[in-house]
């Protein structure tokens, strides 16, 4: 009597909500790409600004939410990306739009030697240490007269490009950066490297005992987060046309990123998206209130932390099961085996 081999159980990642979100997102991106042909320039400028905040927040979420490396000094790479773009554009004759990804790459390269210092620290010391590193870069840049010193300088390389072309190209680069950021993080988390990163976050010693190269993975995530921060910085100052050390290396960049991630939901791809939209709305309608606006942001963050510990999207996910970017693997029951063959 022969028998049919048992069918192995299958692992599923995709969900129906995820597939709907993917097709909807593609439609939104295609529609958004047409904005420079019919929209107002103020809309494009606002999108570029919030796109920079979002990319920066997504990279901080990857570093802290998924990697467990809580940094409050990521503005170091934001500023380095911006200044690298400025130097390439003003002094090396590189097209500033081409200099945006090159500036991000420069920030990632600088992150390698910086990590040798930062990774000697653990926990709260790592967080404070990254802030100190960012301040060192700020003070160093402020003492270089060739790039404006402490008062900063303007991006003169864009003078020969008309305003409509400049704003359209900046908008398209921002849109492409947002799409690439979401897709890149999502595909990474679905890979075995993403599983390794989550294992390191949950228990570093246990992950190392299972053969995961902890040091190499943490370095890779740190460098990728630096690249994203540098990309956001280079893009922001291409749109702003002026850069200064205080603006480029301000701790507010990391503070706002933490706000967006905490409000939306840390450790979730949807978290920075929701947080960025909420931050944009609050900034759009209440920023003119000055100090009261900042107090309101802090109060909102406290309330969300107290009553929605997983963030707003985390609460919706737990209550209704919404998952637009599924990364968890679900084990499906194996099909019933065929009857034995006699």
Descriptive keywords:
two-stranded antiparallel ribbon; 15 helices; mainly alpha; cell membrane; 70% helix; single chain; 3% strand; 342 residues
Protein described:
The protein has 342 residues and is mainly α. It has a domain at 16-250. The chain has helices at residues 16-32, 35-38, 41-66, 75-90, 96-118, 124-142, 163-190, 192-202, 204-209, 214-240, 245-248, 252-264, 270-286, 291-307, 311-320, and strands at 10-12, 153-154, 242-243, 330-332. The strands form two sheets. It has a two-stranded antiparallel ribbon. It is globular and about 65 Å long. 37% of the residues are buried. It is found in: Cell membrane. It holds the Pfam family BPD_transp_2. Keywords: Cell membrane, Membrane, Transmembrane, Transmembrane helix.
Number of helices: 15
Q: Briefly note the structural class of the backbone.
A: mainly alpha
* Overall average pLDDT: 87
- What is the CA–CA distance across the termini? 5 Å
Taking the sheet with the most strands, its summary is: 2 strands, antiparallel
Number of strands: 4
Residue stretches low in confidence (pLDDT < 50, at least 5 long) are none
β-strand amount: under 5%
Please give the order of strands in the largest beta sheet.
1-4
State the helical fraction.
55-70%
Backbone CA Rg? 22 Å
Membrane topology: Multi-pass membrane protein
Keywords: Cell membrane, Membrane, Transmembrane, Transmembrane helix
Subcellular location: Cell membrane
InterPro entries: ABC_transp_permease, LivM-like
How is this structure best summarized?
With 342 residues, this protein is mostly helical. It has 15 helices and four strands. It has a domain at 16-250.
């Amino acid at each position: 009597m022969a028998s049919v081999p048992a069918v192995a159980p299958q692992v599923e990642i995709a969900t129906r909500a995820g597939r709907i979100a993917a097709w909807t997102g593609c439609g939104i991106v295609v529609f958004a790409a047409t904005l420079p042909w019919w929209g107002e320039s103020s809309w494009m400028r606002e999108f570029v600004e919030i796109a920079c905040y979002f990319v920066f927040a997504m990279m901080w979420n990857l570093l802290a939410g998924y990697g467990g490396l809580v940094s409050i000094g990521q503005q170091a790479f934001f500023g380095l990306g911006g200044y690298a773009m400025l130097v390439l554009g003003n002094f090396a004759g590189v097209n500033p739009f081409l200099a945006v990804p090159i500036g991000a790459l420069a920030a990632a390269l600088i992150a390698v030697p910086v990590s040798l210092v930062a990774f000697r620290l653990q926990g709260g010391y790592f967080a404070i240490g990254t802030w100190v590193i960012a301040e060192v870069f700020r003070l160093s840049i402020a003492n270089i007269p060739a790039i404006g010193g402490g008062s900063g300088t303007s991006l003169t390389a864009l003078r020969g490009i008309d305003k409509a072309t400049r704003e359209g190209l900046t908008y398209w680069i921002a849109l492409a950066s947002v799409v690439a950021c979401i897709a890149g993080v999502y595909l990474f988390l679905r890979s075995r490297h993403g599983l390794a990163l989550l294992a390191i976050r949950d228990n570093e010693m246990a992950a190392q005992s299972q053969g995961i190269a902890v040091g190499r993975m943490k370095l890779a995530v740190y460098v990728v987060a630096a690249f994203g921060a540098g990309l956001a910085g280079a893009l922001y100052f291409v749109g702003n046309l002026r850069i200064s050390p205080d603006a480029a290396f301000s701790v507010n960049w990391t503070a706002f990123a933490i706000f967006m991630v905490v409000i939306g939901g840390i450790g979730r791809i949807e978290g920075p998206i929701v947080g960025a939209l909420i931050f944009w709305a609050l900034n759009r309608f209440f920023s003119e209130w000055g100090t009261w606006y900042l107090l309101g942001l802090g109060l909102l963050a406290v309330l969300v932390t107290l009553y929605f510990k997983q963030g707003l999207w985390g609460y919706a996910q737990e209550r209704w099961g919404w998952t637009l970017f599924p990364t968890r693997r679900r084990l499906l029951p194996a099909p019933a085996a065929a009857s034995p063959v006699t």
